Amino acid sequence: MRMKQFSSTLFLAFVLATTATLFAQTKPEDEEIKVETDLIEVPFVVTDKIGRPILNLKKSNFSVFEDGKLQELTDFRATSAPFEVALLLDTSGSTQAELPLIQRAAQNFIASLRPGDRVSIIAYRAQKEPGKASAVSEVISPLTSDRTLLANALDKVQTSFGTPYYDSIVQVAERVFRDPPGEQFRGRRAVVALTDGVDSTSITDFDEAKDLLLSTGSAAYFIKVDTREYFEENLLGDCSITKRFSQSQMRRYYRRFVSSKLEKISNFCELGDFERLAISKNLYELADAEMEQLAKISGGKVFPIGDLSEARLAFKSVAEEIGMKYSLGYYSSNEKRDGTYRKIKVEVKGLPAGAQIRAREGYMAVKN
After folding, report:
1. Model confidence, pTM
2. What is the sign, positive or negative, of the torsion defined by CA atoms of 305, 307, 309, 312?
3. Number of domains observed in the structure of the chain
């Protein structure tokens, strides 16, 4: 009798446990508790007081702070880790005669990277439509380490009638770096752009392009070509034969630099030479400021060159910079998904006086 009572009790306990398990498994989905975290990736370079790279550092040399609060490092990559590079070639306007020079410089840059590095190539081309021709940005090659495929892709690079620079930055973020990086490339992405930074045809604006690129954690490097003198030499005089500002450039100028109370001229031919030079000056200075801003906050750098003949040496400097880059990662202690901007500061310990660090300066938190 006691054995039977014990068996009944044991059976009842089994039923209750099974029922509880089934209930837990069928609990409504909206009652589940989900914890989501995002690894914050920070690429950076460490140099001594005269600018030489400091290599062979370890995770213990570094601390990272977010909005002033110390974070726990969960990921660290030394300078030997491979990189993924989006190579953006501005092949608009005046570059038509110098396209072979751009292709050779880009080829030398790719050859100077390490065997494990992967490269994607983005360039511009003319798109002809009934009654007009426009410029579009396209991905000539997806990310690959195959140097033969990249060489063939460079042979396909064309020129365009305009500069969709902002759109091409968006294309890097949304197509080239759309998917999260593989394990070996975490925190190891960069865009390298050969451009003057003066957009003429994009649908996107700079702020949108900047935010999208920063969301990928990529460092931005610019080989800044000085085209201003060439452009302004062909800007003055008879408007029927001169170079012109695009409508988007005119709108950008009036929106950024002219009081709303002043008259806005949309017809280029109504502009005098003095006004044309003033507009050009402001647009070029705006482009310079935008490149400096994006490079600084992403942990990259701007390399100015006088003309395209200097591009090869500039590309060499960029390749050297990428080769000495560290990266670290952490999960933010601030778990709010509020879309706010978070400041990042990386500190290095145990180095000689005057050592400097150039790192990504912040990021936009994910917003629910």
Report:
1. 0.84
2. positive
3. 2
Q: Is residue 338 part of a domain?
A: yes
Which CATH number belongs to the domain containing residue 266 in this structure? 3.40.50.410
Say if 31 falls within a structural domain.
no
DSSP string covering 263-320: -----GGGS-HHHHHHHHHHHHHHHHHHHHHHHHHHT-EEEEESSGGGHHHHHHHHHH
Rounded Cα distance, 123 and 106, in Å = 11
Whether residues 72 and 221 fall in one domain: no
What secondary structure does DSSP assign to 213-247, as a single string? HHTTT-EEEEEEE--HHHHHHTTSS-TTTS----H
Tell whether 54 and 88 lie within a shared domain.
no
Contact 360, 217 (CB under 8 A): yes
Residue at 5 is within a domain: no
Tokens 């034969």: give the residue: 241
Between CA 333 and CA 37 the distance in angstroms is 10
Pair of tokens at residue 118 = 């992967």
Token pair belonging to 98? 């110098």
- Decide: 157 and 89 in contact? Cβ < 8 Å: yes
Does 8 reside within a domain? Answer: no
Residue range of the domain that includes 172:
84-323
Burial zone of 185 (CB within 10 Å; 0-12 exposed, 13-18 middle, 19+ buried): buried
Mean pLDDT by 10 residues, the chain (368 residues): 46 45 41 52 89 87 95 89 94 80 94 93 86 85 96 92 94 95 88 95 94 93 93 88 88 86 75 92 96 94 92 93 90 91 91 87 87
How far apart are alpha carbons 32 and 34 in whole angstroms?
6
Cα 121 → chain centroid:
14
C-alpha count within 13 angstroms, C-beta hemisphere, residue 179: 7
Residues 6+ apart with CB under 8 A from 149: 141
For residues 63 and 100, state if they share a domain: no
